[in-house]
Amino acid sequence: MLQHPQFDPVAIAIGPLKIHWYGLTYLLGFAAGWWLGRLRTRKPWSPLHEEQVGDMLFYLALGVILGGRFGYVVFYNFDTFLADPLWLLRVWEGGMSFHGGLLGVMLAMWWFGRKTGAGFWKIADFVAPLVPVGLGAGRIGNFINGELWGKPTDVSWGMVFPQAPDSLARHPSQLYQFALEGVVLFALLWWFSSKPRPKMAVSGLFLVGYGSFRFLTEFVRQPDPQLGYLAFDWLTMGQVLSTPMIAAGAALMILAYRRNAQ
């Protein structure tokens, strides 16, 4: 049985100014996305030039932060927001929804694609392989904060999280998600997108990959206490939101290759 290291959530404190690890993980994710995006612009089929990557990330950052926070409020914690509206602004305390962030990013990609003339799908296919880096960084932030822990377990790598309401060893589900949503999904998408693919195919694979990995890890992740299980003593909100992602991703890939074959 392992003990959570109990990291100080504040990375840097200068007087009243406090910089949290959670915020730094987001910054790291965007920085890595900027670097990888510039690498992708060197592909002959890239819809963007190097100097456009920074502008694109600005739009995406707004989409992630605003959409992620909005999604967490609507999907997971609307009652908390009604009781304390200012909680919406305290992003450093954690509380971001991937599915809400995805909606925000989709809106940002639509706007940027319209602005540049590249269109939504070319931007989406360009961005998809960059996203897992940010997802992985965010899961490390969750682990540092000691939040979103897994279910009780007797496996040898089970970990006791002091923030949990008991002293039980639990799955370090944040690290599982880092490995699958971050490392594995990035490797899969980077490899798949290294050659020209039909329009929508890369985006479709991202949706299938993330949705599948998230659905699986929800089986060992403790459900949000304010929601619990939605049905069958195992179905979580994360699985409900991931199911249409998988279906939509599969449909996009089928449509992409059918159109390419015509």
Automatic annotation (TrEMBL):
It is an enzyme of class 2 (transferase). It is found in: Cell membrane. One of its GO terms (cellular component) is plasma membrane. One of its GO terms (molecular function) is phosphatidylglycerol-prolipoprotein diacylglyceryl transferase activity. It is a multi-pass membrane protein. A 1,2-diacyl-sn-glycero-3-phospho-(1'-sn-glycerol) binds at residue 139. Pfam families: LGT. The chain crosses the membrane at residues 19-36, 57-76, 96-113, 120-140, 175-193, 200-217, 237-257. Keywords: Cell membrane, Lipoprotein, Membrane, Transferase, Transmembrane, Transmembrane helix. One of its GO terms (biological process) is lipoprotein biosynthetic process. Pathway: Protein modification; lipoprotein biosynthesis (diacylglyceryl transfer). Its EC number is 2.5.1.145. Belongs to the Lgt family. Catalyzes the transfer of the diacylglyceryl group from phosphatidylglycerol to the sulfhydryl group of the N-terminal cysteine of a prolipoprotein, the first step in the formation of mature lipoproteins. This is Phosphatidylglycerol--prolipoprotein diacylglyceryl transferase. It comes from Marinobacter vinifirmus.
